[in-house]
Amino acid sequence: MSRPQDPHRPFFPLGNPFRRILPKGLQMSPRLISILNSFEETLAERLRKLIPEDQGDVLSLTWMKLAMESLCETHTDMKTLITDLDLPVTGWDQNWIDVYLDDSMRLLDTCIALSSEISRLNQGHLLLQCALHNLESGTPECCMKARSALDNWRHHIYSKNPRVQSCRSILDSLVEALNLPKVKNSSKGKVLLHAIYGVKAVTIFVCSVFASAFSSSSKNLLDLAIPDTVLWARAFSDLQTRVSGEIRELFPSEKSTGLKELDSVDSIVKTLYPAIRDRLQQPPGVEEEALKICFTDLQGGAEKLSEGLDLLAKQVDTFFETVLSGREALLCNLRVTSSDMNAVTGGKIWEQQAVR
Fold first, then answer.
1. Does some domain include residue 237?
2. CB within 8 A of 284, min separation 6: which ones?
């Protein structure tokens, strides 16, 4: 794990994971190879589409929405792959189940943290609307109220969210779990863990970018070294290099608000202060051109920010539901398996798994 003051070297947690999940001598059928290759090629293409064309687009709400959409699609692909493998829960190793359930819970916690920050930032829209309403009136008293609302807005957006601050520890635990359990003579299990590794690595990286954006700090970025044995390794490396590099360049002193649209509104607010001051110094009835321009700019910027946050919030909610539905599907299968096993044996096999 790298820090801004240290060399940013990617790493394998506890060694190369594929030495454990790809035992020698275990062969895959052409059908399984096709399933895995299709999954990895699709993942690689999604990663390539996320590489930003222009500098500064990385932490835009538009890019973040696309990244979260891509993550949802990848997790959905994972469900499809499990179905295609036709690997029943009874064929899953207990360790795989434990890792999946633990990781899904961590992802749900991460989603809650990200959603809380999006909601907090959106609450600032009310302060901007209050400022715009008072500026439209134009009286000295209303101008003072507008300036007070803008002061409150800046204090609000620069304050820290404890939930976002906790994301780093959650992501660290996900990185530690990248070292997947060993496959025991199962070619389908081999494909499953291959896919799980890809989903986890991409999810960790995207979530670390979100945590960096919402905390205005590159300390939350995580650099991962991906084995070149997977088809999506090059695409992941290119994306990580581009995105992480731009974020670290953006946050050398950690004075940015993080989000591109948020920075834009903040810049407009800063220019409003002298415009309001000049307006207060003018006789009543005198129009101030600079104030009118800033008013119009703030209207547009505030609306764009609010709309972007709303769309991102919906996408994070979709990701939450995607992770939750996958978790519930596994738990449901465990309960069904438990009932079937108890009906046959009269025992309590799987019972602990079913209630996890």
1. yes
2. 140
Query: 3-class DSSP state for residue 11?
Result: strand
Q: At 5, phi and psi to the nearest 5?
A: -85, -5
Range of the domain at 182: 18-334
Identify the band that residue 11 occupies on the pLDDT scale cut at 50, 70 and 90: very low
Which two structure tokens, joined as six digits, stand for 325?
A: 């539905």
Instruction: Tell me how far the alpha carbon of residue 166 is from its chain's centroid.
Output: 14
**Contact predicate 70/326, CB 8 Å:** no
Residue 150 has pLDDT above 90, yes or no: yes
Give domain status of residue 6, yes or no. Answer: no
Note whether residue 7 is domain-resident. Answer: no
Check: CB of residue 243 under 8 Å from CB of residue 58.
Answer: yes
Tokens of 247: 């974020």
Q: pLDDT by residue (tens digit) across 257-271?
A: 779 999 999 999 999
Extract the runs of DSSP E, i.e. beta strands, from 131-252: none
Residue carrying the six token digits 């906790």: 166
- pLDDT tens by residue, 304-330: 999 999 999 999 999 999 999 988 888
DSSP designation for 355: T
**H helices present in 24-60, as ranges:** 30-50
Helix (H) or strand (E) holding 271: helix 260-281
Return the minimum-mean-pLDDT range out of 233-237, 245-249, 340-344: 340-344
Residue 166, SS3 per DSSP: coil
- In degrees and rounded to multiples of 5, residue 52 shows phi and psi of -70, 140
φ, ψ for residue 4 (rounded to 5)?
A: -55, -35
Say what the pTM is: 0.84
Q: Total structural domains in the chain?
A: 1
Please tell me whether residue 224 adopts helix, strand or coil conformation: strand
In a domain, residue 153? The reply is yes
Q: DSSP character for 183?
A: P
CB-CB contact of 110 with 170 (8 Å): yes
